[in-house]
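> @MW can you paste both from yesterday?
MW: sure, first one:
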Amino acid sequence: MSISSLPAPTQPALPVPSGLSPAGANAVAASFASLTKKLDYLGPADLHSVRMAYRFADEAHLGQLRNSGEPYITHPIAVAVQCAEWKLDAQALMAALLHDAMEDCGITKTDLIERFGSPVAELVDGLTKLEKLHFNTREENQAESFRKMLLAMARDVRVILIKLADRTHNMRTLSNAPREKWVRIASETLEIYAPIAHRLGLNQTYRELQDLSLRHLRPWRYAVLSKAVTKARGRRRDLIRKVQSDLELVFSKHGMVVRIAGREKTLYSIYNKMIDKNLSFAQVTDIYGFRVIVPELIDCYTALGLLHQVYKPVPGKFKDHIAISKINGYQSLHTTLVGPSGVNVEFQLRTEAMHLVAESGVAAHWLYKEVDQSDISRSDRMGSKWLQSLLDIQDETRDAAEFWDHVKVDLFPDAVYVFTPKSQIMAMPRGATVVDFAYAIHSNVGDHAVSAKINNEVVPLRTEVKNGDVIEVIFNPDSIPNPAWLGFARTARARSKIRQHLKSLAQTESESLGEKMLAQALRAEGIENLPESNALNQAIWDKLLRFSGNKNRSELMTDIGLGKRIASIVAKRLATMLADSGEKLDALLITRERFAANEHVAQGGVSIDGSESTSVRFASCCRPIPGDVIVGYLGRGEGLTVHAADCQVAKKLQYKDSERFISVEWSDEPVRTFETGIVVTVNNGKGVLARVAGALAAAEADITHVDLADESPQGAMDIRFVIGVRDLNQLDAVFKSLRRAPAVLKVQRSKNTAQISP
């Protein structure tokens, strides 16, 4: 058995290239020498390649200085030193040395391919910011840079390892940068890079980035906490010795070979705990803990039993992360025991391979081949699964800001563990809902989910899942995703899939709407039907597409449905083409279609029955229902908006943009209820709202929203409702039912024109 203390994170010596002072030259030589000392795992050919990359980078950065005044080459070497700590291969080390060459030195990707090969150039390209592209905002530029980095990382995880090494060294030297940059860089590190390091299991890097961020975001608090921890370390030296002595005795007695290492809580963790739980420093009891490293998995549980014989466990403070590993592959047993003098002490028990994964995550893939690879491959799979999900999200989301929005959702330090009905364990982010679980199983399950059973009890899809829940998703093949799901979906995968489906649905519906509108407009030009899309009419469709600038017929119809193209203009052009090809125009049809409709309507009519979903929306200013006279407005790229004909908003739009209005009418048989607003003026008193709601229920109206006026509880007051009705006839029945209620003084429709009152 050996007992040791964990060393503090080591900072690689800073290198400096030839050129300035003898001290600078010595620093460079010592620094590159420190790198070569760590490359004993490489063969002679690989070592030569790394040396050539160093020389190329040294020449490229010659004359450039860091904020500290040191030659710039110190930074690439420091990044390469960290990558060598992870035992990354020669290509990654070369990319680490060259990672700023494209961005800062005018070196092109082609140059790197010619000198060092395509794999190294691809790694460097994945790390290079998009300086040559122009974006509207810094945030947009940043989002695009991160999207590029993350996608490169998904294809090759070495990209993010080099990037994290780069950011770690930049944070170690941030004190040399202008103070006004501290908050931006430290916040970005804390919000983006530290969570990525944690998500990939790089816990040592994760903790260091958090502490360095706190140091520059809250320098005074960091200094105060640092002094407090140093004092506490001295006060608790006797406690640590006593625990070590007790452990040495019990493990020796049972013949167990273990390695015990001290663990000190990071300053960032202490600070966060004090803030979150409103504690003073003296009340944070778990600053120090111990890691017990054992040879075999079974020894973890044996050592746990021995520990529980020495000290009493604190109830509710045991976690088995071996049986159910964390979402980033971390495995360990955690237990908190009542140590000497009644002080709580946390212990973590794990094998050597688990310890390696716990500290290095996906980087463990390259480290120490002699340890058990089963645990390392498990962590690698955990990281790869998340990285693959990035590629899936990219396939569905081409917008950089939206992509990064999705990814940030998944950078969670905590997870809950739930079970499928077949007892398969699934890790979900804390706060995830049933709809997230459904999409985690399969996108088809999520798309068609209607409800679920948690522990055999039926629950809605918005229900938050908890540790140990057994979840069965109930789905219907005819069901489709609801836009409201985006309000409670938590995971990037679920949100991305929902948005993809809704976009696809909107496009399909817009295409159908556009086809109806073009057919109707073509009738007004004297052509009964649209020409079929076949070989006979292909020449005409090709000419029309050249006129409109669309790639295909489907895109043209979608643009008409979204209001990006005017149906009447396209119809006139199409009618001219058909007439030129010999088709006769029907004069009677022209007369009937053009003059039977309102003269100011330029585009032909559409029948509305309520099944149009996202392609047609009903204006909230007037909330039209079947029976109202209506008009349709084609907003640019927004689809069709239906207004009441006497709506003041519609009249203003008609005055400014009359060519975008089309004739719309209600179908003979609408397929659903429609929302409309009403205002009920009542004599305020006890139970009046219940009586009004009862009158609405008696008329079979669905109440979807209620708004009580902020007025005196005495006298008359207005209650505003949004209700669902089939048509004007049912609304009339609602008004009659309300008039019979004793407290009701007046009822009117809350639109900006028509009113109904008793």
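MW: second:
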Amino acid sequence: MQTSILTLPRDAWRLARPYFTSDERWPAYLKLAAIVVLNLSMVGMDVVLNFWNRAFYNSLQDKDWNSFTDLLLTWKRTPGGIMPGFTGIAFLYIFVAVYRTYLNQWLQIDWRRWMTTHMVRDWLADRAYYRIALASAGGAGDTNDNPDQRIAEDLRDFVASTLSLALDLLSNVVTLFSFIFILWTLSGPVTVLGITIPGFMVWAALAYAVIGTWLTHLIGRKLVNLSFRQQRVEADFRFALVRLRENMEGVALYGGEAREQQGFGRLFVAVRDNWWAIMQRTKLLNALVAGYSQVSVIFPIVVAAPRYFAGTLDLGGLTQTAGAFGSVQGAMSWFVTSYRDLASYRATIDRLTLFRDAIDAARAGKAGVVQRVSQNADQHLQGLDISLPNGQTLIEIDDLVLQRGQSVALQGRSGSGKSTLFRALAGIWPFAKGSLEHGTGSRLFLPQRPYFPLGSLRAAVSYPEDPKRFTDAEIITALTIAGLEHLNAEMHHVDSWSTRLSGGEQQRLAIARALLIKPDWLFMDEATSSLDAASEAELLGKLRMVLSHTTFVSITHRDAVAATAQRRYRLEGGKLVAAE
């Protein structure tokens, strides 16, 4: 993605604006105002220290002991007014520095909490997370990668960098205008080729900063795209490691360690190569910035030295001039010294902007099968057209009624689209059109591979309901009926249930979930396929006995399971055909 640092303010405000126009804007503005005041106080103290330096070094030059101790410990009356002692300035400086950081961190966590809450809400709304994943799998490019990193890390970096860079820029602007008049007065005029130039050191600082800024941008502009890519390849490598942790048993059973090692190595090569490119570019940038900073230390003294040796400038004036020049030149050179941070910030904003756009596009995209609630208790499908992400038509159903109280079994060859139809009925498949009219009764969908949230067994079996909705006795009964009575004692134990339990146990736990929720309609996509035929028949028999008022719609490969249904269908050639 080709982007420019020059558009940073506009793009940053696009991301920041929702928070600063939200219901929490006034507390945010108060904290921000306090931080700005404290930052400006730091600038004010720098101005005071500039004049203090002049008085202090003059006391050294004059060997004035009383002035020396007064300027260190208490205060001293000078021609320009009362000059506070260094001790008082230092204590005030410490107080301001501590609370500036404290309030900054307070605003950071509040802002990050708000952005995280709203981005996660939008990511989950309308199943945007699922549609983004489908679009990415369908070849939509790299704009949707690693949402975990964008929410957890990029939001954190955006908030911290926005405050840091914006406040630093503000301080530098105020510093520039605070010291530029001091430097103008101290530097005096200079005559070059018969032309008198007033405030010549101000112009020297400006020229120095302009040259440095141009060279810095020329050398460092490639860092923006390199930083963007580095965040991506780092996230890809981390995701692969997490994926291994979630599939350890499968890798171990296959003996796939060598292949995993190759995969990790390939991903880390991308990390290393991009890092190497960053190193090369950073080396050139560091050489420029370091040289620029070193020259700026001696440059003002060299320029002002002729006046000092001519006797028109005392030692205190020389040090004050050098300090003022350093402040003016440093403020003008903010772009130079902050370029690496700006490049990283640009990459963070790009990643968040792309993610935000992907969420908006997913929520505004194809809605899938239109779900309508009616007084009719049946499920009525009309004009159903299901496609793959690439646009290829997979299933067409003109009209189908699933009657309440009449169990249905759906079969078909692998790859015929049974699971995609299951997703379309659930309303999560975006590449579909048509309508589904259903009653007000509750529906529960059990996929072949169940999902379990992080937490206790009680939370896992209750999902997606609130665990507090069910009593311990109800959960124990459900686990026992599902054949998981050996887990009753671990109801409140926290574990990674998706890795600890076997495939069959996971499917039994999903059945226990259905026993608790007691839906009016239960859709199952090979939800008991990990069990042996006898165990599957026994478990489904218990399920139908307990949920006697539930209508079952099952996708299965096993004829024995399909034979228990009152109506049977097969998917053949993209059409739904009634089975004999």
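> thanks! The mean pLDDT is 85.
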